[in-house]
């Protein structure tokens, strides 16, 4: 997954789940579900904030300030604990590293 600039964001997300989590890391079904739920929350937040459909998001939209806003949103509006917030941050950091 080296050519993220040429690949649409939905393709990168799909590759993250199929190649990175399932094939390379042999993630359990529970782990894949947790990542899926994190991405659902992120994409809903992006739609609200950026006014973009998930298929229109580009990887550069998910910059550090945006991710920090998302994590604050989880903590303040969804009343998630710091532990939950940190788990979601790890999810997005790992996926961003995979997409490089």
Gap between N and C termini: 7 Å
Gross morphology is: globular
List the uncertain runs.
Answer: none
Number of strands: 0
Radius of gyration: 13 Å
| Percent strand | under 5%
How many helix segments?
4
Oligomer: single chain
- Helix/strand order, N-terminal first: HHHH
Biggest sheet, open or closed, and with what strands and sense?
A: none
Helix/strand-derived category reads: mainly alpha
Mean model confidence by pLDDT: 81
Which percent range fits the helix content?
Answer: 55-70%
Structure description:
The chain is mainly alpha-helical and 100 residues long. It has four helices and no strands. The protein has a domain at 9-18 and 41-98. The model has no long low-confidence stretch (mean pLDDT 81). Helix 3 runs antiparallel to helix 4 (82-98). The longest helix has 22 residues, at 29-50.
